[in-house]
Amino acid sequence: MLNIIAILKEATGGDLNSVKRCVQLIGTFSTSDSYTNHAVLMNAASDLTVEIFGEKGKHTRNTSRVYSLPLNSSVSIQAIFEIE
């Protein structure tokens, strides 16, 4: 999520105040078949977004599990933000 915030800051010319809202976060996790707490893993990203943007950081969210991710990554997070 920190990488997403850094990219967002660059996209807004360094002005995160131009973020109108976070629309959605989508988290995909590469875990074992028996692991079922994907939503708990995603809480850190959601909590950070609300911590940084306050009410504008509240968003819809989706989490899922996959067998594998590119480059053997353990997590992939996609974010949709509305900016001015």
Report what the structure shows.
There is one protein chain. The chain has 84 residues and is an alpha+beta fold. The chain is 31% helix and 33% strand. It contains 2 helices and 3 strands, in the order H-E-H-E-E. It has helices at residues 2-11, 38-53, and strands spanning 19-30, 60-66, 75-83. Strands 2-1-3 form a 3-stranded mixed β-sheet, covered by helices on one side. It is elongated. The mean pLDDT is 96.
Index terms:
84 residues, alpha+beta, 2 helices, 31% helix, 33% strand
Would you spell out the secondary-structure blueprint of this structure?
Elements: H1 2-11, E1 19-30, H2 38-53, E2 60-66, E3 75-83
